[in-house]
Amino acid sequence: MDDTTLQVTTRSSTGEGLVLAVEGYLDEDGGSTLARETRSVPEEEDRRICIDLDAVGLFNCSGARCLIAILRELERQGYEVELIGVHPPLKRFLDLTA
């Protein structure tokens, strides 16, 4: 995979709900890709989504803002969202915006 792209793999997991594994560069284009994937999430009975960011190698402010907008939209729709594998620089950015 190219370092400047973002790929999202979706799988169902017992107990975790739907898991979105994100890999690559989280910039504005990557954020749009992630948003598109979350909008196509089927209605889950337990309304739980886990977003795994462990394989996100780089991010920029535009991508982080897209992620924040995605999280807010999912929560507005009634989903319980858990972020896992968040690397310290992105975690600090997300903590500042919370």
Word description of this protein:
This protein starts with 5 loop residues before the first strand and ends with a helix. Helices cover 39% and strands 36% of the residues. The protein has 98 residues and is α/β, with parallel strands linked by helices. A 4-stranded mixed beta sheet has the order 1-2-3-4, with helices on one face. It has one domain (6-97): Transcription Regulator spoIIAA (2-Layer Sandwich), CATH 3.30.750. The protein has 3 helices and 4 strands; from the N terminus they run ββαβαβα.
Mind telling me the C-alpha Rg? 12 Å
Structural class: alpha/beta
Listing every helix as H and every strand as E from the N terminus to the C terminus, the arrangement reads EEHEHEH
What is the arithmetic mean of pLDDT? 89
CATH topology assignment = Transcription Regulator spoIIAA
